[in-house]
Write a structure and sequence with these properties.
Number of strands of chain A: 6
Structural class of chain A: alpha+beta
Order of helices and strands of chain B: HEEEEHEHEHEHEEHHEHEHEEH
Shape of chain B: globular
Order of helices and strands of chain A: EEEEEEHHHHHHHH
Number of helices of chain B: 10
Mean pLDDT of chain A: 89
Distance between the termini of chain A: 38 Å
Helix content of chain B: 25-40%
Low-confidence stretches of chain A: none
Strand content of chain B: 15-25%
Structural class of chain B: alpha/beta
Radius of gyration of chain B: 25 Å
Largest sheet of chain B: 11 strands, mixed
Distance between the termini of chain B: 44 Å
Oligomer: heterodimer
Shape of chain A: elongated
Low-confidence stretches of chain B: none
Largest interface: A-B, 43 and 33 residues
């Protein structure tokens, strides 16, 4: 049998094997596999589902693994990273109003006096309701994007990626809420689950100074660092040096 | 809050308190919809100044924790912290103002957090159309508000008399508690303060009100008790800068209070007396003894209290402020006559036609 393989679409590979026969037609077998089914790399061999590709050297096998990762996990994580940054930035606008409402409710309500015209109940509740609706709409778009990006990702890796998203987004809310006790707990979880050490003193100082821009920037850095660690964690499964952009 | 693998809501802890499983981030990510509530601020007191003139020395009655809101008329609408200003209309009578600004005032009072304190004071010149709008407003709760209502003298113009009479009518109908201060009282009140020197008129009134606001908790307790006893109208009296060289003892100073009340009332109709005494700490015992003696001389009082406020000073002067509750709704004949005369020609000013749902 002689076999050839090519990547079709972005995440599928097709292997075609033909019987070498001097006379007659022989036979041909076609295998199509999803690159998400990358299983293991051992020596020069790379298994995708039940197919094993043998390369000339371990380096070549790892290059192949890294190519697969770049169109699967690394691409997904890159897209998630972008979506998370956009989500955090847009949410910070809403949370900024929330933080201001907590800190100086009167001046915040006066700022929104015109839009509270129809408010029939407590104006703080009316403004909060509006913020909740905005957060909901923002989350809806973000969640749809997240689900679409993660559709093909195996559950354990999905959980790991969502852990980063959830913990960083929760940290953002708690920072605007100045809830230091919960912030400490979230940082514990980040450190335990992602082995990333967060600068607690810096975050504490920015909360005291109400430096929300600084907080957002730090959170985006934390998210990016966690995602980098997830990429490394995935590539160590295949014992190949990661190719991080 | 995050959810565990079994769906229980849990804290940001490694394990769920109910079932011991880990956080499920797939489930928890849905919780990002949350925005927690904001606690309503609590303020010591809120003081509304209704159309009381731009030169009012606000800072003098602004103890910490008291929010002062000026509700005024001006050349244009304006809104900022401490101020609601409505554009002055062509008419001077309240109906046009109520149509134009009534709902907006309700809304703006709420936005200004008028209900963030259960101790609300409203100082208003009743001849302003805004006095009626404020007392009529849904945001002004009779149970938590003490009005200080200024009543114009007999030479008041007809539109002002209509506004003033209508405001008093609303106060009565809505069951608000009000301290009544007549223009004549403002002309007469004066005294000596170690800190400010000789004070009179509006300045003296502010000096007195400062004590009422800074003893807001005690005053509100007394006014609430009085409400339960059916007392809602008060006169104000004060001795500013009393000294032993003028009054033989402080019980004499207290006795003099009932001859200095901000509204004409018969002695026999007095039903409650609440005195705020501001004096150096070492005079507290002496003042309390004088107070007991003073009260013994009164028959038929339903309620009485003494609040002591420590006040510094080198000359040994003390101030007495009395809030004197009486039985009957006060009548101001000249206001009623002017009101009736305008109403017979302009039925729109008939305050009794105002809807009950907001009163």
């Amino acid at each position: 049998l002689t076999c050839s393989a090519e990547v079709i679409e972005s995440t599928r590979i097709r292997a075609v094997c033909r019987e070498r026969k001097r006379f007659g037609r022989g036979f041909e077998v076609v295998f199509e596999k999803s690159l998400w089914d990358l299983r293991v790399r051992e020596g020069r061999g790379v298994s995708i589902d039940d197919l094993e590709f043998i390369f000339g050297s371990e380096d070549e096998a790892c290059r192949f693994v890294n190519e697969i990762l770049s169109v699967t996990y690394n691409r997904v994580i890159g897209e998630i990273q972008k979506a998370v940054v956009e989500y955090l930035e847009r949410r910070s606008g809403i949370l900024g109003i929330y933080a201001r409402l907590r800190r100086s409710p009167r001046s915040t309500l006066l700022l929104f006096a015109e839009s509270l015209k129809e408010c029939q109940v407590d104006p703080i509740e009316c403004l909060l309701q509006r913020l909740r609706e905005e957060v909901k709409a923002l989350y809806k778009g973000f969640n749809e994007k997240l689900r679409a990006i993660l559709a093909d990702v195996p559950a354990d890796i999905q959980e790991n990626i969502l852990s980063a998203v959830y913990l960083v987004a929760s940290l953002q809310l708690k920072a605007y809420e100045e809830d230091r006790e919960t912030i400490a707990k979230i940082i514990d979880l980040i450190e335990n689950e992602h082995k990333y050490s967060v600068d607690r003193v810096l975050i504490g100082r920015m909360i005291t100074q109400q430096d929300y821009k600084g907080i957002d920037k730090t959170l985006i850095n934390i998210a990016n660092e966690i995602f980098k660690r997830i990429i490394i964690w995935i590539s160590t499964k295949y014992r190949c040096p990661p190719s991080i952009q | 809050l995050p959810r565990c693998e079994k769906g229980h809501q849990m804290g940001f802890d490694p394990r769920c308190g109910v079932c011991g499983s880990k956080i499920s981030y797939t489930l928890s990510v849905e919780e990002l919809l949350e925005i927690p509530s904001v606690e309503r601020p609590r303020e010591e007191a809120i003081f509304l100044l209704v159309d009381y003139g731009a030169g009012f020395p606000l800072q003098q009655i602004s103890p910490r924790g008291v929010y002062i809101l000026n509700i005024a008329l001006g050349d244009e609408d304006s809104l900022s912290e401490g101020l609601i200003m409505f554009r002055r209309l062509r008419s001077r009578l309240w109906p046009e103002y109520l149509r134009e600004y009534g709902d907006r005032l309700n809304r703006l009072l709420k936005i200004h957090g008028v209900d963030w304190s259960s101790n609300r004071f409203v100082l208003m010149g009743s001849s302003s159309p805004l006095a009626l709008l404020t007392s009529y407003s849904k945001a002004i709760d009779p149970l938590n508000t003490l009005l200080i209502t200024l009543i114009p003298g007999e030479n008041v113009s007809a539109p002002e008399a209509v506004n003033s009479y209508s405001t008093m009518w609303i106060i009565d109908r809505k069951g608000l508690s009000s301290l009544i201060v007549t223009e004549g009282f403002l002309d007469e009140i004066s005294g000596y303060s170690e800190e400010l020197g000789y004070i009179e008129g509006g300045d003296a009134l502010i000096y007195i009100i400062r004590y009422i606001v800074s003893s807001s908790k005690e005053i509100y307790r007394s006014v609430s008790e009085d409400r339960e006893l059916g007392i809602r109208y008060y006169g104000l009296a004060a001795v500013i800068g009393a000294h032993s060289t003028v009054f033989r003892d402080s019980s004499h100073a207290m006795k003099s209070l009932v001859y200095r009340v901000s509204i004409d009332i018969a002695m026999r109709s007095i039903q409650s007396i609440h005195i705020i005494a501001a004096a150096p700490r070492d005079m507290q015992g002496y003042i309390e003894t004088s107070y007991r003696e003073f009260i013994r001389g009164f028959g038929g009082l339903l309620n009485h209290t003494l609040s002591f406020v420590e006040k510094g000073g080198r000359l040994g002067t003390y101030d007495l402020v009395a809030i004197i509750g009486f039985r009957d709704r006060p009548e101001f004949e000249w206001l009623r006559k002017a009101y009736e005369s305008v109403r017979s020609r302009n039925p729109e000013v008939d305050v009794s036609l105002l809807g009950d749902q907001r009163v």
